[in-house]
Amino acid sequence: MENSKQTPATAPIITPQAAIESADSRRGFLKNSSVLAGTALGASAGLSAMSIPAAHAAGDDAIRFVVIGCGGRGKGAADNIMNTKGNVKLVAVHDAFEGKCREALSQLGRRHGDKVAVPEDQIFTGLDGYKKAIDTDCDLVVIATPPGYKPQQFEYAVAKGRHIFMEKPVATDAPGVRRVLKAVEESKKKNLMVGVGLQRRHEPSYMETVARIHDGAIGDVISQQVYWNGGGIWYKNKTDDQTEMEFQTNNWYHFNWLSGDQICEQHIHNLDVGCWVKGAYPVECNGMGGHQQREGGDGSKSQIFDHTFCEYTFADGTKMFSQGRHLKGAWNHVGEFAQGTKGTSDPSGKISGPNAWKYEGKRVNGHQQEQHDLIEALMRGEVYNEGEYGAHSTFTAILGREACYSGKIVRWDDLLEKGHDLAPGIDEYTLKSTPPVVRGEDGKYPVPVPGKYSPFA
């Protein structure tokens, strides 16, 4: 892939802190489609402020939002939104399972009282219930479902003209990324807000450090190391009353078509920082990995790897080395490091060398900060769009996964064009459908074997 064809990681997408506008001004913004933002998002954002189309018609000044996916991050994002200074109201929820909807509403209701205003007829379930939730009278859609389901949900929200916050990763395969990128282009035409849950880009410690790197504080970036090494994740045993699709959707992390593997679901944060620091995306990757400790190496429970190692190569020949794993008893570390021709950096807040510097400002909760920024921008009538770098950072993780699964050098352009569709016909899936991955005659799910697995359809 030629570097000129890439969309480099943008500079920090962040809006300045400002006072919430008056109730009358907010009401005018929500009702009118021609409100123009008065300020840019900041010189480093590389975006102009844009007018916002109206989606609201209920006659008050609240930003009405819905949550698609009521698991940990869905509840978390909703909580973060209701912790902002914005006048916000949760008006509908969706999850594949009713119990998760009700659990989320119970927890959020105890914390936020009348900011939770979800009537019984606006609780939606099943795999297609997201459409009904998005169709309600709302301004903002929060998408926090298993990543395999996100492309079609994002596409539908854009088609309906909703502002969107979507958790990372935004897809699990090349067709999904292509679908998201196409919808991102449509969202730009409609001037929609698109936030993506790569929250380090909203943390001042990262923002200031990366800005200094881009200004030459460590010279040319020639090598990076990124890590997400931890001890493990949850597992939910199949119950007798569950269909196979219900089991996999409820246990989504352990299935590649739903989670994209650990390198996509968690390590994407560090890969995103590395690409942000470099200002580019890799042209190819080779890697290695395996499935030794994941659920004791039991292929009847989980099909994803528990460790990966990648060597990413950028168009200028420089490298980014990646470690991602869930191994009990091993070295745990989550972070990033960069080496340049004039110094080194921990992008979370430190530069070493002739231009030595350390971030001394306030550390913030990135999950909360990204919602402060998003809601404050909407209340001022501004939008920004993180969809493109969200999709490209997701694809960086997919590129690494496919290199590790295959044991081969995989090129960005080849994979984006010809990579596997992990869930053919996903728009038509129900909780009674047969999933795209099932146990074989040996009772085990297919686990990729490096040297035999092919990344291509």
UniProtKB/TrEMBL annotation:
InterPro entries: Gfo/Idh/MocA-like_OxRdtase_N, Gfo/Idh/MocA_oxidrdct_glycsds, NAD(P)-bd_dom_sf, TAT_signal, TAT_signal_bac_arc. Transmembrane segments: none annotated. Pfam families: GFO_IDH_MocA (PF01408). Residues 63-195 form the Gfo/Idh/MocA-like oxidoreductase N-terminal domain. This is Gfo/Idh/MocA family oxidoreductase. The lineage of its organism: Bacteria, Pseudomonadati, Planctomycetota, Planctomycetia, Pirellulales.
